[in-house]
Design goal:
By secondary structure, this protein is of the alpha+beta class. The strands form 5 sheets. A 7-stranded mixed beta sheet has the order 7-11-10-9-8-12-13. The chain is globular. The two termini are about 15 Å apart.
Length: about 600
């Protein structure tokens, strides 16, 4: 999402550990709000005539927010005052800080508050003043293929769009999913959310006034096109599906090495018999936890893995015609477009009549031209595939072994069944949040043999498929393993560690995000914020105390030093395995402090330092 630039900023510099969606709700959509995010844009070489000031200003600095950011004039006035007091080099006629309302409604509201702005000495600009003579604005060059879709921000919020769509938007939006490219009918600022997202993804982006009626664009709305944006202009032409597929298969221009799957490993091997080198059979997440188990012993989860081979065996089920109608009912009940649900039903019937397996059906779905060109149909068809997977039986022998192993090892205690594919936790692609993990038991209605289907089916979630498509990852090369270990209950603390200094360049530093109890650190609830502390050989720096423990650190000094030493040992151990120098290797570690006071490291995956 395009809120990530601000999100990473507050993560790195302020210690805010909200997930990006919670962060966006707190920062952009609430009033009063606990925080606000703005862009300051220096317009070098620009001279504007300001109605508010009554004279020209050169090289103005504009304070800007997203087009959908509902910011009242009084909040804009407050923010302007805070920023103006910190810009000592601003002058009345040059480098003047000026408020730029994000949309027409905010600009109309400002007119009623002009006396307040004048009384405070706060200047503002109308967009027409800033971009008086501009009709075409090139923001990010590039080439894209996709179906050109004309949407308002409100329509886009409730519309399925994908990496195979080119969006023609009436105005910029605050949140932009992965799409092939963007055109806006309203001029953008260089740091608008749409502009930032396009640059980060390398997708073409430009603004053109009245683009929907421009003869260079209007005839192509709703059609598959090739868009090329250069430094001076753009061109758009009809494209064939073959041309588009060739372009889409190249992904985002980053060559990802997805490990080949080893389907020869069967059974339910215990973590104690596995290690880092087994990722091809059980997935990187499970293999790394097994390596932790071997390296740390009881300070890492104990459990077992369900190898890729069992997922592949499940995918050999043939599509039963009787479930196609049930999938249609489910599709409509979840308020998808009835025509898309009906079209998905016809694909399902065709797969059943053709005797296709789940494996063959999933491949056929995503290769079919009609589904490739229609994201609404694609999303509905994928939902139907997951529905069917959730209703088919697990191999009886595996089901008995899975439930018996869990009941024998963990008795009545719950376990976590965690996704572990060969396309996540990679050095260049984390895949965080794409796949599903569930809790289960060895018996009862939530027994593991029934719940495992949800983990397997998450390979075909909408977000996972779209993300893989954007990165050029072949869907038929992705296999799902499952990591099974105890579900920690009544933990007294949990945290996420990065074996790097997220606030500077101190060597051998570890940045801790900690929270007492079982409250999530990366997805906090109720506005609670975690403790942020950096530990390095020469010291400890508490940057933020937990809102749930403002007067007392989450870990004792002894526990903090114990976890620090262990984190450095883990980093050095995995650096050898990844063939990296320790100082160039950063890991993302998840930890728990159990009710008995033990510190458990439950996950280790590469952390991309270049994202800092």
């Amino acid at each position: 999402v395009d809120n990530e630039t601000h999100w990473w900023f507050v993560q790195d510099l302020l210690g805010d550990s909200f997930d990006v969606n919670t962060y966006a709700k707190r920062t952009y959509y609430r009033y009063p709000r606990p925080a606000a995010a703005v862009n300051l844009v220096l317009h070098t070489g620009l001279v504007v005539e300001s109605r508010a000031l009554g004279h020209a200003v050169s090289d103005p600095i504009t304070m800007e927010m997203g087009a959908e950011d509902d910011i009242p004039p009084e909040l804009a006035l407050q923010l302007m005052g805070l920023i103006q007091s910190r810009i000592s080099w601003s002058k009345p006629d040059t480098h003047r800080l000026m408020w730029l309302p994000p949309n027409d409604e905010e600009q109309r509201e400002l007119s009623a508050h002009e006396p307040d702005f004048r009384a405070a000495g706060t200047a503002w600009l109308d967009r027409d003043e800033l971009l008086a003579d501009v009709r075409l604005q090139i923001l990010n060059p590039g080439i894209a293929f996709g179906t050109l879709r004309y949407l308002t921000p409100r329509e886009m919020a409730r519309t399925v769009v994908s990496s195979r769509d080119l969006l023609l938007l009436t105005e910029p939006v605050n949140e932009l999913p992965i799409v092939a490219g963007t055109i806006t009918e309203r001029l953008q600022t260089p740091l608008s959310h749409v502009s930032i997202a396009a640059r980060a993804r390398g997708t073409p982006n430009f603004a053109l006034l009245d683009a929907a009626t421009d003869e260079r664009i209007a005839p192509f709305i709703g059609k598959l096109v090739r868009l090329e944006v250069g430094d001076e202009g753009f061109s758009m032409d009809l494209a064939t599906l073959e041309e588009a597929q060739a372009h889409w298969s190249a992904g985002l221009g980053v060559e990802l090495q997805v490990p080949k799957a080893d389907l020869s490993v069967t059974g339910l091997p215990p973590l104690s018999s596995l290690g880092f080198e087994d990722s091809a059979a059980i997935g990187v997440k499970a293999a790394n936890v097994a390596e932790l188990n071997n390296f740390l012993g009881e300070a890492a989860p104990v459990g077992f893995a369900v190898p890729f081979s069992h997922y592949e065996a499940f995918m050999q089920h043939r599509i039963p015609r009787r479930l196609c109608k049930d999938a249609l009912v489910d599709c409509v009940s979840e308020e998808r477009e009835p025509t898309a649900c009906e079209s998905a039903l016809q694909r399902c019937y065709a797969g059943a009549l053709g005797g296709l397996t789940l494996r063959a059906y999933s491949t056929a779905l995503l290769e079919e031209p009609g589904i490739q060109a229609d994201p609404v149909l694609r999303e509905a068809a994928l939902d139907g595939l997951r529905y069917i997977m959730g209703k088919l039986p697990v191999d009886p022998e595996l089901a008995r072994a899975l439930d018996a192993t869990i009941e024998g090892r963990f008795q009545d205690a719950p376990v976590r069944m965690r996704s572990s594919t060969n396309a996540e936790d990679l050095p260049d692609f984390s895949g965080a949040g794409l796949y599903r993990s569930v809790s289960a038991y060895g018996h009862g209605g939530d027994r593991a043999s029934s719940r495992i289907r949800k983990v397997w089916a998450s390979v075909w979630s909408w977000r996972a498929v779209e993300e893989r498509s954007a990165w050029g990852i072949a869907h038929d090369e992705v296999y799902m393993g499952v990591l099974v270990h105890p579900a920690y209950r009544d933990e007294t603390a949990n945290g996420v560690l990065v074996t790097a200094d997220m606030f500077g360049d101190r060597p051998n530093a570890v940045t801790f995000n900690l929270q007492p109890g079982d409250l999530p650190v990366t997805n906090p609830e109720g506005g609670h914020t975690p403790e942020v502390v950096v530990v390095w050989p020469e010291g400890v720096e508490y940057r933020v105390m937990s809102s749930l423990s403002p007067d007392k650190p989450v870990l004792s000094p002894e526990q903090l030093q114990q976890m620090y030493a262990q984190a450095i040992q883990i980093r050095d151990h995995f650096a050898v395995l990844y063939d990296r120098a320790p100082e160039a290797m950063a890991l993302d570690l998840e930890i728990k402090r159990t009710a008995e006071g033990d510190l458990i490291c439950k996950q280790a995956r590469p952390f991309p330092l270049e994202r800092r």
